[in-house]
């Protein structure tokens, strides 16, 4: 009996024979990091290679001076192989040639080593950080608003929960606005790809317009303009003397992240017998009387059900996250990191990650979001002076304690522990921090009620609180719209405090970027911020000086100084509902006989400051002569 050749082969394949006749060469679909650099402090690089059944491949490296293939590692998922190489100091920029060989075929892969060119600028007390949510700020390129081949295809400015179309080009278009205002650094909520489905939150379907649901660490979201737009923004901002702060998320990723859809190993996530949410409690992490159970819930519980929690104790995952951070600094040239949900990360991992960045860029500012309730709690998650077994190495933190103190001080009547004493007592605890001048105080951000609403839309209180923010120790952070009185409460959702910047989108009825688009009070607020922030840039005392405060007196008068050997600035706050007058003799230790001063907000010269008169709910800023 004659059997057709093709039919025979088909039968044999179905029987599991001769499958090698159909074997294909290794199918490599992804390599991370996408490239690397010579001259790094750490010579070790671990390359993640992803492709169908790639783990069975043998890996070889063509001889390259100064580069050595150390080993390869695989996981329970056959679609991954991790390639460890060592790049010595003698290695030059060029292209490494790897060969991946399986039983039947091989494929060559070129991997680029670049020359380092990133020189991050130090973010310090000399700066004022302006927080932007790119989707809500300005739309500079309507062609990238949505893509039909992404998981979320909707853009609708009428919905508070969907994407609105703001992008990186929109920020580029308004760099001169920041220059005018006196801002020196921009912190953007995450711009990394969020190619994720809408999530059901509180019964409504919501987009990840805020950017905290990562799906691919090595891509900037196309709806913001992609990698090239981010490079352009950073380059243009640097030309104008404006620094860029990137928002990092190590704790979790989106359920649509490519790594989650095909996990290298089950232990890359925190797994529980049943779904377990974090308690959001910080105390179990440092409580010497606390339980291991509560500690585990806080750290390993998921932030939400749709944000898989990463197990940073897994060495391959830890390397992946750390190398991405290093790659970002080198590739894009960012200047600082703000680290999201800091307390929910594994602290050993965070110390390792922080050290890796600081080893390469010692002056880089890293500050974490530690939304805790006490100064001790906040200090635990940064470099501190506490005598405790575990020490965090994070240089700085978002200063939630000062944020709470300022807002509370403006809402309470003066008392032993109330009113402006809240701010005084909070700052009096700076002893616990190694570097309190590196903390990042604020009055509002994208997760809080709007400052102007919190203080009852009182314009005098508005100016008083911002005077404190811009003149106490630390690196002040403002939120887009603070400068022209944006208001609202987080009711019913956070979207209410993330409204569009009017004038940033086609069809807006007003334009807050221009004086003509702001009403009289909004212009007064803008000019107040502009005057103080631009003075601050030129003031050695406010940008480099030490901080000395005096106990509040006379039922609500609070005085402090910022000073260097060359300049002294005196801030006098009257939080009473009536005018006050007082002698300055109690401040002799720092005034040292100073007789005159200039009011930096009015430019008035005061020839005799032995006695000061201050209107109700007002702060005056005096440059001592």
TrEMBL record:
* SMART domains assigned to the protein according to its UniProt record, in alphabetical order: Aamy
Keyword Transferase included in the entry's annotation:
no
Ranges where the Glycosyl hydrolase family 13 catalytic domain occurs = 131-536
**A Pfam family matched in the record:** Cyc-maltodext_C
Q: Which chain positions lie within coiled-coil regions?
A: none
Swiss-Prot/TrEMBL keywords: Glycosidase, Hydrolase
- Name recorded for this polypeptide: Glycosyl hydrolase family 13 catalytic domain-containing protein
SUPFAM superfamilies on file: (Trans)glycosidases, E set domains, Glycosyl hydrolase domain
Q: Which domain of life is it from?
A: Bacteria
Q: Which InterPro entries match?
A: Cyc-maltodext_N, Cyclo-malto-dextrinase_C, GH, GH13_cat_dom, Glyco_hydro_b, Ig-like_fold, Ig_E-set
Q: Does Hydrolase appear among the keywords?
A: yes
């Amino acid at each position: 009996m004659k059997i057709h050749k093709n039919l025979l082969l088909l039968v044999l394949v179905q029987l599991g024979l001769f499958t090698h006749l159909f074997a294909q060469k290794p199918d490599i679909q992804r390599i991370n990091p996408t490239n690397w650099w010579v001259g790094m402090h750490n010579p070790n690089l671990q390359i993640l290679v992803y492709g169908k059944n790639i783990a069975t491949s043998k890996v070889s490296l063509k001889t390259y001076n100064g580069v050595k293939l150390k080993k390869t590692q695989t996981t329970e998922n056959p679609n991954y192989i991790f390639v460890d190489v060592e790049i010595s100091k003698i290695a030059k920029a060029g292209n490494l040639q790897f060969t991946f060989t399986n039983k039947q075929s091989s494929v060559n892969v070129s991997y680029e080593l670049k020359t380092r060119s990133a020189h991050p600028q130090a973010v310090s007390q000399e700066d004022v950080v302006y927080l932007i949510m790119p989707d809500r700020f300005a739309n500079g390129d309507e062609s990238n608003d949505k893509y039909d081949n992404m998981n979320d295809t909707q853009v609708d400015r009428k919905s508070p929960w969907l994407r609105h179309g703001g992008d990186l080009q929109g920020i580029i278009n308004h760099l001169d606005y920041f220059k005018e205002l006196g801002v020196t650094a921009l912190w953007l909520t995450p711009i990394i790809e969020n190619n994720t489905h809408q999530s059901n939150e509180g019964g409504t379907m919501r987009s990840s317009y805020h950017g905290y649901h990562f799906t691919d660490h090595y891509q900037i979201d196309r709806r913001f303009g992609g990698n090239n737009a981010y490079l352009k923004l950073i380059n243009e901002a640097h030309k104008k003397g404006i620094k860029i702060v990137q928002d990092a998320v190590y704790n979790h990723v989106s359920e649509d992240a490519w790594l989650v859809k095909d996990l290298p190993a089950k232990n890359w996530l925190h797994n529980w017998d049943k779904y377990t949410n974090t308690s959001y409690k910080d105390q179990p992490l440092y409580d010497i009387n606390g339980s291991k159970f509560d500690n585990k819930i806080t750290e390993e519980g998921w932030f939400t059900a749709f944000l898989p929690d990463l197990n940073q104790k897994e060495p391959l995952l830890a390397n992946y996250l750390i190398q991405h951070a290093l790659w970002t600094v080198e590739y894009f040239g960012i200047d600082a990191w703000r680290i999201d949900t800091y307390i929910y990360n594994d602290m050993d991992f965070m110390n390792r990650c922080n050290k890796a960045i600081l080893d390469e860029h010692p002056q880089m500012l890293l500050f974490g979001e530690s939304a805790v309730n006490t100064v001790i709690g906040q200090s635990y998650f940064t470099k501190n002076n506490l005598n405790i077994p575990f020490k965090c190495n994070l240089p700085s933190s978002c200063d939630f304690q000062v944020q709470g103190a300022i807002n509370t001080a403006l809402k309470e009547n003066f008392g032993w522990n109330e009113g402006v004493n809240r701010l005084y007592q909070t700052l009096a605890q700076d002893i616990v921090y190694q570097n309190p001048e590196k903390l990042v105080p604020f009055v509002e951000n994208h997760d809080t009620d709007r400052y102007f609403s919190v203080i009852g839309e009182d314009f005098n209180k508005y100016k008083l609180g911002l005077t404190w923010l811009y003149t106490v120790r630390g690196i002040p952070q403002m939120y887009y719209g603070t400068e022209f009185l944006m208001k609202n409460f987080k009711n019913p959702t956070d979207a209410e405090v993330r409204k569009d910047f009017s004038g940033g989108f086609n069809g807006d009825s007003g334009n807050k970027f221009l004086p003509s688009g702001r009403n009289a009070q909004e212009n007064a607020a803008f000019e107040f911020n502009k005057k103080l922030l631009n003075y601050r840039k030129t003031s050695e005392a406010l940008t480099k000086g030490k901080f000395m405060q005096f106990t509040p007196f006379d039922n609500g008068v609070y005085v402090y100084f910022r000073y260097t050997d060359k300049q002294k600035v005196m801030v006098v706050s009257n939080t009473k509902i009536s005018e006050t007058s007082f002698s300055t003799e109690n401040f002799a230790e720092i005034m040292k006989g100073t007789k005159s001063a200039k009011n930096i907000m009015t430019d008035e010269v005061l020839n005799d400051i032995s006695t000061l008169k201050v209107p109700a709910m007002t702060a005056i800023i005096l440059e001592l002569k």
